[in-house]
Design a protein that fits this description.
EC 2.8.2.-, Rossmann fold, alpha/beta, single chain, 4-stranded parallel β-sheet, sulfotransferase activity, 287 residues, 13 helices, binds adenosine-3'-5'-diphosphate, P-loop_NTPase, Sulfotransferase_dom
Length: 287
């Protein structure tokens, strides 16, 4: 793939790379003025941090664990990405759950959120696992440029030269503004360690009363294996033009610490030497 092809895949907005054909400068300008309703719930993350997992959990929490009421809706229909132009084609009937997803940086979100309209659930993940997950994602999500190898991708990630830009800027900006908006910050690792406690936290934040049986149901349907097998959550119905299903699965491994099997010792040391300094004052530690 040559440089021309690379440029066709991305464009820049505020110095950050976005995917051509999925969004545009005009659309990203439009997002800022989006009229947020008091009941809207935004799921926000840096890509590959467990966004779809959170879409499943939160949509089930909002539906009081009523699996039947959401089973015919894909995750995209339940919690569309405001970042993409497709968002504006959502039918107005999308009123059952008012769930919206975004990978946008804090500076680019609807300004109404900063006036405490709506709620935000931010999910963060160990950047090393994000890198590995994203590296694989690049090989089958057809809108992204396939990196030459893991080393090249690692360097691009550290430079913030990947779609949605720098991981550290993303998490820092959202985290440091968490008092400005109505926000719950959770990590992939904590949900993985204790999903019941994670759902409890989310339920409380959203002001929902759910009994233990309902929480059991949400746990069951949010399990990795379940989401991997369920057509509403596994993205297998998306065309090969978008996801090359022969080259990867959206629910790939779903574990904590997969980086240990992918980083060489030298790559890990190099990454640590940069990130330990870059994130030294950040209160949430991932490893
Ligand atoms: P891996 O590639 O490490 O397996 P996102 O939804 O933000 O794109 O994140 C995708 C990552 O979340 C993938 O990680 C995917 O497997 C993982 N994931 C998706 N559903 C999950 C689940 N139910 N439990 C645990 N991890 C899940």
């Amino acid at each position: 793939m040559d440089n021309t092809e690379k440029q066709e895949k991305y464009f820049e907005y505020n110095g950050i790379k976005f995917i051509t054909n999925m969004t545009s400068v005009e659309h990203l300008d439009w997002v800022k003025d989006y009229k947020v309703h008091q009941d809207d719930v935004f799921i926000v993350s840096y890509p590959k941090s467990g966004t779809t997992w959170m879409q499943q959990i939160v949509s089930l929490v909002l539906a009081d664990g009523d699996v039947d009421s959401v089973k015919n809706e894909s995750l995209y229909q339940r919690a569309p990405w405001i970042d993409f132009q497709l968002f504006r084609q959502q039918p107005d009937s999308r009123t059952k759950l008012v769930l919206i997803t975004s990978h946008l940086n804090y500076q680019m979100i609807p300004t109404a959120l900063k006036k405490k309209m709506g709620k935000v659930i931010y999910i963060a993940r160990n950047p090393k696992d994000v890198i590995v997950s994203s590296y694989h994602f690049h090989s089958y999500f057809q809108r992204l440029k396939v990196p030459k190898d893991f080393q090249e991708f690692l360097e691009l990630f550290v430079e913030g030269d990947v779609f949605y830009g720098s991981w550290s800027d993303h998490i820092r900006d959202w985290y440091s503004n968490k008092e400005e908006i109505s926000m719950l910050f959770v990590t992939y690792e904590e949900i993985h360690r204790d999903i019941r406690a994670g759902i409890e936290k989310i339920r409380k934040f959203l002001g929902k009363e759910l009994d233990g049986k309902i929480i059991d149901t949400i746990i069951k349907y949010s399990k990795f294996e379940n989401m991997r097998a369920d057509p509403a959550t596994n993205f297998l119905s998306l065309s090969k033009d978008l996801l090359d299903h022969d080259r990867g699965k959206f629910q790939r491994k779903g574990i904590v610490g997969d980086w240990k099997y992918n980083f060489l010792v030298a790559q890990n040391e190099w990454f640590d030497s940069i990130y330990q300094e870059r994130m030294a004052d950040f209160p949430v530690k991932f490893y």
